[in-house]
Write a structure and sequence with these properties.
This protein is of the alpha+beta class and 463 residues long. It folds into two domains: 81 residues, no CATH class; 249 residues, no CATH class. It is built from 18 helices and eight strands. Strands 1, 2, 3, 4, 5, 6, 7 and 8 form an eight-stranded mixed β-sheet that branches. The longest helix has 24 residues. The two termini are 36 Å apart. About 17% of the residues have low confidence. It comes from Ambispora gerdemannii. This is 11296_t:CDS:1.
């Protein structure tokens, strides 16, 4: 573009002049050339003086929010002066950062995706941008994000058995599902061991847990007023969920780390490329982390809130995204522990629990074919403030026992991953074909956040 030309973008009405649209429609690759063309076009139109500065600044207002992190929260007027100085040759913070950004692989991938997105949009084809290779089933809009084969992998792949409650557990839950507090109190003092036998912790622990959960909630149900009116998050943790979740895992070799515990799997992922001189980054913090005793392996996480705003609430959406990223890191950690062997990785699962006030939802994350991460949200269950058959506590306990079964299955896979099939290992055919290890697969990684331009510039100055 010569000095006297005007870009075709400015043939539209001046009310539609917007720098963000201009940057999208410009064919120039470098950010510097795009801004240079924008400024020269305004100068050729004849915009000068105070009116010119006002008109130039208006389109920048919509673009200012995106440029603040890149410019270190500088004033818009100073930004305009720096943009106009692009025509001269100097090594300033903006020009240097632009050159650095232009060569970064993630920015090149972003430009490629944007180009494909525009092409698909012009033809009417669906196109969705994902930051992670994670696919959730929380809504029905995810069916257009990949090929038919990949979508079949997500919706139909079942390479693991779904855990089911034992018959004795189901029968006890049915017995305790009553709508009278006095009747429940009588039942709780009766023996829950089948056929009146002797209690064995290794066999009847889950029955004891169910009995304990109902006895813990009985104190709240005996109150005249609804116990769940205007309570804080800590109150629910102490009086509800500490009776319903924590005791269920006491017979496993699993620690439920409470109190904003840091995820070690998340920390390991963030420090994969750490050098000896770099500061170690901490992992994501959750309201609970299921961790193997005396180890770093993690099998699930918990996020909680003081109230329930529905699945469209900001708190729910934020915590759901946060916990899914944590579970993705845990799943990758377990896959690495299994040496990414395909027959083991496909069976791995981790669980998450989202509970706001007196409601809970269980999330399961797995790798159906080894690469695409599948996230499944189960139904939201409620702990009723009154003893009732319409919203029985049995449904909540069923979800918790379901999560426990998944963790138990995954823990068994980790404990038995090094077992050797002696019959095949010592078979005569192995002498001819040799010993074959299990086939490995590639597991998708969680991308790191894009570094800020200011950090990149400061790093270059230090060098």
């Amino acid at each position: 573009m010569s000095d006297n030309q005007i870009h075709e973008f400015f043939k539209r009405k001046s009310a539609k002049w917007n720098i963000s649209d201009f940057l999208d429609e410009s064919n120039d690759e470098q950010f510097k050339k795009k801004i240079d063309a924008y400024i020269k076009s305004l100068e050729n139109i004849g915009i000068n003086g105070v009116a010119g500065n006002l008109l130039v600044s208006l389109p920048f207002k919509t673009f200012r929010r995106a440029t603040k992190p890149m410019l270190g929260h500088r004033r818009t007027s100073r930004f305009l002066s720096d943009v106009q100085d692009f025509s001269s040759t100097h090594i300033g913070p903006i020009e240097a950062s632009g050159e650095l950004l232009d060569t970064r692989p993630d920015r090149q991938e972003a430009r490629t995706w944007r180009k494909k997105h525009k092409e698909r949009k012009s033809t009417g084809e669906p196109s969705v941008h994902l930051h992670h290779t994670e696919i959730g089933t929380i809504n029905g809009d995810t069916g257009d994000i990949s090929t038919i084969e990949e979508w079949k992998e997500i919706t139909t792949s079942e390479v693991k058995d779904k855990p089911k409650l034992e018959h004795s557990l189901v029968e006890l839950l049915k017995i305790y599902t009553v709508d009278n507090v006095e009747r429940l109190q009588e039942i709780l003092f009766e023996s829950f061991v089948p056929d009146g036998g002797k209690y064995d912790r290794n066999i009847y622990y889950d029955l004891n847990f169910i009995n304990y959960a109902y006895r813990g909630m009985l104190f709240l149900w005996e109150r005249k007023e609804n116990p769940f009116i205007e309570r804080l998050e800590g109150w629910y943790e102490m009086n509800v969920w500490s009776h319903l979740i924590d005791p269920a895992f006491h017979n496993l070799n699993i620690d439920l780390v409470r109190g904003e515990g840091m995820s070690l799997a998340s920390s390991d992922r963030k420090n994969l490329e750490r050098t000896i001189h770099a500061r170690k980054k901490i992992g994501r913090k959750g309201d609970g982390v299921f961790r193997l005793c005396m180890d770093r392996l993690e099998f699930g996480a918990i996020e909680s809130g003081r109230k329930w705003e529905g699945q469209s609430g900001t708190k729910y959406m934020t915590d759901s995204l946060k916990i899914c990223k944590m579970l993705k890191d845990m799943l990758n950690q377990l896959a690495t522990e299994c040496d990414t062997r395909e027959n083991l990785v496909r069976k791995l699962q981790v669980v998450g629990m989202l509970h706001g006030a007196n409601r809970i939802q269980v999330i399961t994350v797995d790798l159906p074919k080894g690469y695409v991460t599948r996230i499944q949200h189960r139904k939201v269950r409620e702990v009723a403030g009154r003893l009732t058959k319409s919203k029985p506590l049995a449904l909540v306990l069923k979800e918790i026992l379901y999560a426990k079964s998944i963790i138990t299955q995954t823990l068994d896979i980790i404990n038995n991953k090094d077992d050797v099939d002696l019959e095949n290992f010592l078979d005569d055919s192995d002498e001819q074909d040799g010993y074959h290890t299990s086939r490995t697969i590639a597991v998708s990684k969680t991308f790191m956040k894009t570094g800020r331009t200011k950090d990149v510039v400061n790093e270059k100055k230090r060098q």
